[in-house]
Here is the input.
Amino acid sequence: MPKLKLLGGQVVLHVVLLSVSLFMILPFIWMLSTSFKPQEEVFARPPIFVSPNMSLDGYRYVVEYGVLRALWNTFFVSFLATVGSLFFCSLGGYGFAKYRFPGRKVLFAFLLGTMVIPGAVTMVPTYIVMLKLHWVDTYWPLIVPGAANAFGIFFMRQYISTISDELIDAARIDGCSDFATFWRVILPICTPGLITLGLIFFMNSWNDYLGPLIYVKTPEKFTLPLLMTSLQGPPGYSAYREWMGVAVISTVPLLAIFLIFQRRFTEGITAGAVRG
Amino acid sequence: MSRDVAVIPSVGDRWKRLWGEIVKNRWAYVFISPFYILFLVFGLFPVLFSIYLSFQQWNGFGPMELVGLKNFAYVVGEGGKVFWKSILNGVLLFFMYVPLMTFLSIVLAVVLNSKLVRFFQGYRTMIYAPRVTSMVAAGFTFRLMFEAQGGLFNLILAYLGLPEVPWLEHVWWARVALCVLVVWGWLGQNMVYMLAGLQTIPRELTEAALIDGASPVQALFRITIPLLRPVIIFAVILSTMGSFGLFPEVQTLTWGGRPMRATLTTLVYLFNVAFDDYRFGRASALAYVYFALIFVLSLVQVRYFGSEE
Amino acid sequence: MKRQIVSWFTLGVILVGLLAACARPTPETVEVEVPVEVTRVVAGTPETVVITATPEPAAPEPEKPSGKITIWGWTAAIRDTLEATDVFEDFKEAYPDVEVEIVYYSPDDVYTNLPLAITAGEGAPDICYVENSHVAEYVHMGGLLNVTEHLQPYLDNIVEYKLYDCEKDGKYYCVPWDGGPVVMYYRRDVFEAAGLPTDPDEVSETIATWDDYYEACRTIKEQTGSYCFAHNKANNWGRLYEMVLWQQGLGYYDPQTGDVSVDSPENVATLEKLGLFWGEDLVSDSLEWTDPWYEELGSLDQPIATLIEASWMDVFLKSWIAPGTAGKWGVAYMPTFEEDGVRASNDGGSVFVIPEQTQNPEAAWAFLEFAMLKNEEYVLKGLAISGFIPSLKSTYDDALFLSTDSFFGGQNTYQIYADVNGEIPRAGIYGPHYAMMNGAVSVAIQRYATGEATAEVALQAAADEIRANLE
Here is the structure.
């Protein structure tokens, strides 16, 4: 330990950490910077970070193209998916955590086992199911299947199992039904865990590309990732700054949320796993 | 004086008791049912239907045609060459970035965990930030940065006096570029896993070793890493599935596998077979072979890493 | 007195007879040749050209179609071209009860959404704009309306090769619009500097075969340092290779038998011929539709010498790729592969299809007939505005095909396009499996070009893959 306190050691560590951090941040900077650059400057030598010809034209084009609607769509879908998943996962987690019912162990093991199946296997037949349900080109496929998912239930189960049983008993004595107990007693206590899990769900939904790619077809319903890949400028024009504009718009909200709730992101994801 | 006769519950009694338990806990069943219902519809049924489909030839539209094992023959025959190439790519990519990324995430986690460095929260934030970015946005950005003529990475190389690289035009450099993107996106997440794992290792162990004269590096390799084994296995298995399942990264960075399919991952290939070629039967068969491979691979990894005690 | 009466009477009869003879008969149909002036884009300075088209009066239909129809298409084709011809307004006048809705999609979206709608059984438009390269896939997938009977009266007037992709079991499933006759665009200034002829006829004669082309390219490289044409290696899309195969009547498959011919000796030889140009560094590495490619075409000091491409390239060059090079280009016939071969090939071209799901097939057909078949006016305007060469042979008689183009040094380019269009042979390039075949062969070309494999090996691998895929 004393060795590490040497200034030299500190410097080395800082250098390493700084380099890594810089590598992590650089694409964000470049993304932002390029979103303001005219086409000729994107590959300029030496690289231009702050463009002398900075303009909002890229953003204007992108707004005309429909990015605000895509932004709303993305938010709408992510929000619904998150709220829905939080509800069903906490409900399921409560069921597994606080009830000693026959078959509990087997059913839970089964639940964990389903996490092994890669999405690729169900990709095609799920699509066919959605075709039959007439859910193609709607948002339902992005919200419903994941509503009660194994990871979420696992996480909430861990979390809820730390809640003292006495609280639940007290509620029962007061005459609360099972569901009311869940709604009025458990959920409020779980708020921190719900926020953590909710952030994960929200982020995954926001950034999901494969799902919308398979199921969303009409341009008006596009989410941000789809808009980005479908974006084209007028012929002959390489829409670099427009791409970056959409990239910025899709990144900033999540980054903001991340910066506010940092702790929850970095600590929360593993909280469930570690505690178990 | 009456003697207590040992009461042996009869079978009927057992059933009654069981039923009583079930009824008493009926709400639990209600609460956990959504998962099973959804799984039935969107999990089990598709999995079973997929098996059925893999023996058919179907374009999603007209009639289905039962073709027996033809789709599987395709996989092991001529047509499977592209599929196996994608598997090979997955393996290559795995070795190209997973060891490096895992090791780096451990090192970073140890450094940040030791809390010796000030602003460690700031560093942790910056390193984790890419994780919240959409890989589509990142893919586009990196594509610009990897542009052979005037992309940022080449400009940096030139500035450092190094030769510029035809990143996305050359088979191996394209793979490297993909790895760079993936590491950028996932290093933070892996570091967080390691950080969590480190919480379970008592500080005293490493401290004792250091006091006994071990160097920090030795402590890292002899104590920390072995104790992190479960987390490492967990992270590596996730990365394994990840390297075969890279999707938006490939679509945006290398236009879906260029050059010459060098960066084609299995998931992208499956997607193409299903939704570009409209060969649902073949895609199902391919998906099952893929699933089997991943499953075996994961088992092997758990066995191999787990058994080294 | 009697003699006077007879002579007056005779004079009267003669006069009446003359009057009767001179009077015009009341016409049943009014045929009016209306010269139409259309603005054609030439490097920013609009040039006006004249189209003499005969608008057909809308024949009174016993029962006019009505209702709403939806058209899916790209902005370049529908908004910038079709709409600019005023066809939608005119159609509205002729068929006031039909409402037309247009939905613009990018090409990728069309090719995703159309098959999706067909397979889902719902959501398809009434009319969809599709390229020739893709239409065969949809024809064979099923779900398109059989228009053979409607098309019958026009069949003789349609250039043959356009219908190959639309046909299945003797029935037709599309209405053709424009074609993709391939020519050789060349830079007069580069040719001059290299000591080559610049007059189009002379160029066509001098560069008659691909061997001549090879020699000319070497000369150009030696004398001017310019590259001959663009042919990317690592990301090659295979389009040029397809054009050269097409002109020989070859292809990915044999059009008569359907057998995969990707690895045939002729196909290999063709690729190796293209390989000569790579071998001697006669071609640039720019990839089509990227910035370096645009730069070469538009450059004044570092230009590319030639471009073998279809006629629709014409307007792109003029309007946004190389407007600054007006007057420096010429159009010659593409070289043939062997002596006395065909100097015509195809790249691109488009059609309209009507999905079977349509609720309003009569209105959909009415529109397509009006815009593409009955009235020459609109397809001619399409040519003037965007370079879409019509598939109707009768249009080639129009005055438009006598006009000259200052961008091409005052040459009559439309005539060449029309000539080539009529000569395009049947080849096995497009077809129901075009996308898959092009994908496999592109990889083979890339492998060959980057030196990873010989042409034979690379094409063999591609052929095996394709054959396995087709089973």
Notes: Residues 16-33 of chain C have pLDDT under 50 and may be disordered.
